TrEMBL record:
This is Branched-chain amino acid transport ATP-binding protein LivG (TC 3.A.1.4.1). PROSITE patterns: ABC_TRANSPORTER_2. InterPro entries: AAA+_ATPase, ABC_AA/LPS_Transport, ABC_transporter-like_ATP-bd, P-loop_NTPase. SUPFAM superfamilies: P-loop containing nucleoside triphosphate hydrolases (SSF52540). PANTHER family: CONSERVED COMPONENT OF ABC TRANSPORTER FOR NATURAL AMINO ACIDS (PTHR45772:SF9), CONSERVED COMPONENT OF ABC TRANSPORTER FOR NATURAL AMINO ACIDS-RELATED (PTHR45772). SMART domains: AAA. The keyword ATP-binding applies. GO terms for molecular function: ATP binding; ATP hydrolysis activity. Residues 15-290 form the ABC transporter domain. It comes from Candidatus Paraburkholderia kirkii UZHbot1.
Length: 297
């Protein structure tokens, strides 16, 4: 049964960021970011290139450490923890495929399952009947059962991206981070990929970076926007809050039914219902008007 958007709040979040700050030298990339992803929620993070989305993913997945703040995943503070420890509570895919090309499709899933195992003994590295059965079930779910014994390098690009998703699912973590899962796909491939993501992540929390707005609206329960407010949202005053100018080459005219968070230069400026944002003149003047905030450029 399809879940209703926004009816996902639980006692504990799948992911909660509190006061996250990140600097590279003198450049302040993220400013006091607070972000919450509920359990069993699909949350999209959108914005132009260079806005800090992948940096945020790096912090959450343990590939980098924030300068300030807390990162709590499934009730565990993971800020500054190494990736192997972070991988116990979340899995991440990248903008490019990260499959083991020389291994079979099935063995790619075995590696993901065994790497996530908690046992310290040698049998953790030996596929059991249970892991074999689960891997086969995953192959069926991602549509690659017919390619089980083929080297992953022989798969088409869209099939490799499906395998990436399967690898993330194989870890059995409550939270999955997907970095541009439809990048490089044509419209038909992207549509199939989104259907696959929806079908296989019903019981997980999902945080997705995506530039394809059709994908965002087709997938997300909730949307957060990471952008330089003056540069990317100045057109809102002329064309209405429902239009997002994400990049110069991408203009979307569509109503946002989801809850929305507006972020400027790494800081969240507004978090609430889209209708509230449209009707609140003080909010729009302060955060969405050029010169409305010292940080909004």
């Amino acid at each position: 049964m399809a879940r209703a958007p926004h009816e996902v709040r639980t006692m504990n979040a799948a992911l909660e960021l509190r006061g996250i700050e990140k600097r590279f030298g003198a450049t302040r990339v993220l400013r006091g970011v607070d972000l919450r992803v509920e359990k069993v929620e699909r949350h999209a993070l959108i914005g132009p290139n260079g806005a800090g989305k992948s940096t945020l993913f790096d912090l959450v997945s343990g590939r980098a450490r924030s300068d300030e703040g807390r990162i709590v995943a499934d009730g565990t503070d993971i800020n500054g923890q190494p990736p192997p420890r972070v991988s116990r509570v979340l899995a991440r895919s990248f903008q490019t495929t990260s499959v083991f090309g020389a291994l079979s499709v099935l063995d790619n899933l075995h590696c993901a399952m065994l790497g996530a195992a908690s046992s310290r003994y040698i049998d953790r590295w030996l596929p059991s009947r249970k892991t074999n059965e689960r891997a086969q079930a995953l192959l069926d779910a991602i549509g690659l059962a017919a390619h089980a014994d083929e080297p992953a390098a022989r798969l088409a690009y869209a099939e490799q991206r499906a395998l990436d998703l399967g690898i993330a699912l194989a870890t059995d973590t409550p939270l999955i981070l997907l970095d541009e899962p439809t990048a490089g796909m044509n419209r038909a491939e992207a549509s199939r990929a989104l259907a696959l993501i929806r079908a296989t992540t019903e019981s997980r929390a999902l945080l997705v970076i995506e530039h394809d707005m059709d994908a965002v609206f087709g997938l997300a329960d909730r949307i957060s926007m990471l952008a330089q407010v003056a540069a990317c949202l100045a057109a809102l005053r002329e064309r209405g809050i429902a239009m997002l100018l994400i990049e110069e080459r991408l203009t979307i005219a569509r109503m946002l039914d989801a809850r929305v968070a507006v972020m400027g230069q790494g800081a969240i400026r507004f978090d609430g219902a889209m209708e509230t944002l449209r009707q609140d003149a003080a909010v729009t003047r302060q955060w969405l008007s050029v010169g409305g905030s010292a940080d909004s450029g």
